[in-house]
């Protein structure tokens, strides 16, 4: 059945499709789901469809699920945004003063952990992770091999992971 045939079946089956969607939990959004299905069919280039009624009911069900998942992701994004903003809903990039102090203390602790691994480990980590210098360039600048830079980064990562585990325990 062609696209025009599917649209004709959609028109003929409109009320049963609406009842189906409402029964499946679409509620007032059932009309919107059907409208989106209509628009998708208008842009769809399908071959023959053996059972157009079943095809439309399945497509409507999938559209309803897509809409639900989209709304769920939107709610989660909003909740995450409010959490990041401290629940204020204001669009400020500046962290709250207490978070600034905590972040500064954490940064100082992380630097101390890396410094305990050696000055070069701290320097390599800073150059690579903070300043964005390539590992090869770091090796050339410090006069060490690429392998030595990689090993220093591994030491830094291991030390930071071990430090982070102590934070998670507390």
Tell me what the structure shows:
With 170 residues, this protein is an all-alpha fold. Helices cover 76% and strands 0% of the residues. It is built from 8 helices and no strands. The model has no long low-confidence stretch (mean pLDDT 86).
Quick structural overview:
This protein has 170 residues and is mainly α.
Series of H and E elements:
HHHHHHHH
Indicate the percent of residues in helices.
Answer: over 70%
Which stretches of 5+ consecutive residues score pLDDT under 50?
none
Strand content: under 5%
Number of strands: 0
Shape: elongated
Q: What is the SS-derived class?
A: mainly alpha
Number of helical segments with 4 or more residues: 8
Distance between the termini: 64 Å
Main β-sheet: number of strands, strand sense, barrel status? none
- Indicate the radius of gyration in whole angstroms: 28 Å
Mean pLDDT: 86
